[in-house]
Specification:
This protein is an alpha/beta fold and 340 residues long. The protein is built from twelve helices and eleven strands. Helices cover 44% and strands 14% of the residues. β9 and β10 form a beta hairpin.
Length: 340
C-alpha cells in the first residue's frame, strides 16, 4: 500500500523549493501549517518538532527575501477532533483558536500575513455534503453546521492571532469565489444564479462583513439552517485586513428543480477555451474582484489561487511547449470586460 506521508517531501526539500522561488523571482510564498503536526490531538500537548520545522521554513524564506503568507487551515483536521464530530461540533472552533494562538506566538515575530482558512466552502460542502473531501459525508444539514463552525473558528482565531504578539499583523481569510451568471433571461435561471451566489459566495462573504447570513438563503434552507448563538454573528465579523480570492471559473447557472440544494445546474459554453472541465473566463475574475471591493470593502484583496490544468509534458529535450498556458495567462490578466 501507499500513503501521503512523504508526498513531494517539502518537509526535507524546502531549501530546494525556496531556491526555485528565488530563481523565478517570487517575492512571497503562501503555505499552510499542518494542525496535526503542531497539536496532534487537536487540543492539548504541542509538538515542538512541528513548530521547529516552520521556524526553519520561515527563517529560510526571509533570508531569501521572500514574504511568508501563512494559512492555518487547509483541510487537515486532526483525527481526534474528527472522532468528536469534527466541524459539526462547536468545540472545534475553540480548539482552532487555541491552535492559531500557539502558532502565532511562535511565528508572529517574523510572519506578518496570516490567513485563518483556505476555502471553507470546500471543507464544509465538499466534506459534509458531496463527500468529495474528508470526512466524506452526504448530509446537507451537517454541511451547513460545518460552514457555520468554520466561520466561527475564523472569528475566534482572528483576535487570538492578534493577541499573540505585540506588533501589528495582517490577518485575513481565503475564499474560493465563483461568480454566477444566469444561463438565460428567464426568471427561473435568474433566480437560480442568485441562489448559487448565495450558496457559494454570499453565505461566507455576508457574515464576514458583519451582515449575518443572507436572509434569502436562510429562508431557502429552512429547517436545515445551523444553530447560531447571538454572539456568533459578532465573532465571525472580527475585522480583517485582507481577503484572499481563489478564482478558477464562472458558473453559468440554470435552474434544475431535480438537483440538490441550491437546485442549479452548471452550463458549459463550448465556444470558450477549457482547461480540464473549466471554462477559461478571465472576465469572471475581474467581475469578482470589483464586486467584492465595491460591495464588501474588506481592505486589501489578493488573488491567492488561479491557474489551469493542461496535459503538457517535457519533450525529448526536456522542454515544455505550452502555448495554451501562455494564452491562458494573457487572457486571465485583470482587465475590464470588453477590453483587450
Amino acid at each position: 500500500g501507499s500513503n501521503g506521508d512523504v508526498a513531494c517531501d517539502s518537509y526535507h526539500r524546502y531549501g530546494e523549493d525556496i531556491a526555485l522561488l528565488r530563481q523565478i523571482g517570487f517575492n512571497a510564498y503562501r503555505f499552510s501549517i499542518s494542525w496535526p503536526r503542531i497539536i496532534p490531538d487537536g487540543a492539548g500537548p504541542v509538538n515542538e518538532a512541528g513548530l521547529a520545522y516552520y521556524d526553519r521554513l520561515v527563517d529560510a524564506l526571509l533570508e531569501a527575501g521572500i514574504e511568508p503568507f501563512v494559512t492555518l487551515y487547509h483541510w487537515d483536521l486532526p483525527q481526534a477532533l474528527e472522532n468528536r464530530l469534527g466541524w459539526t461540533s462547536r468545540a472545534t472552533p475553540v480548539a482552532f483558536a487555541e491552535y492559531a494562538s500557539v502558532v502565532a506566538r511562535r511565528l508572529g515575530d517574523r510572519v506578518t500575513y496570516w490567513a485563518t482558512h483556505n476555502e471553507p466552502w470546500c471543507s464544509a460542502f465538499l466534506g459534509y455534503h458531496t463527500g468529495h473531501l474528508a470526512p466524506g459525508y452526504h448530509d446537507f444539514k451537517a454541511a451547513l453546521s460545518a460552514s457555520h463552525n468554520l466561520l466561527l473558528s475564523h472569528g475566534l482565531a482572528v483576535p487570538a492571532i492578534r493577541a499573540a504578539v505585540s506588533r501589528p499583523l495582517q490577518v485575513g481569510i481565503v475564499l474560493n469565489l465563483t461568480p454566477a451568471y444566469p444561463a438565460s433571461d428567464t426568471e427561473e435561471d435568474q433566480a437560480a444564479a442568485r441562489r448559487f451566489d448565495g450558496y457559494f459566495n454570499r453565505w461566507f462573504l455576508d457574515p464576514l462583513a458583519g451582515r449575518g447570513y443572507p436572509q434569502d438563503m436562510w429562508e431557502y434552507y429552512g429547517e436545515a439552517v445551523p444553530q447560531v448563538a447571538p454572539e456568533d454573528v459578532e465573532a465571525i465579523a472580527a475585522p480583517i485586513d485582507w481577503l484572499g480570492v481563489n478564482y478558477y471559473e464562472r458558473n453559468l447557472t440554470a435552474h434544475d428543480p431535480e438537483a440538490e440544494p441550491p437546485q442549479t445546474r452548471r452550463i458549459i459554453d463550448p465556444a470558450l477555451d477549457h482547461t480540464a472541465d473549466r471554462e477559461v473566463y478571465p472576465e469572471g475574475l475581474y467581475d469578482t474582484l470589483v464586486r467584492v471591493h465595491n460591495d464588501y470593502g474588506f481592505g486589501a484583496l489578493y488573488v491567492t489561487e488561479n491557474g489551469c490544468a493542461l496535459a503538457d509534458a517535457p519533450d525529448d529535450n526536456g522542454q515544455v511547449h505550452d502555448p495554451e498556458r501562455i494564452r491562458f495567462l494573457k487572457r486571465i490578466s485583470l482587465r475590464p470586460r470588453g477590453r483587450s
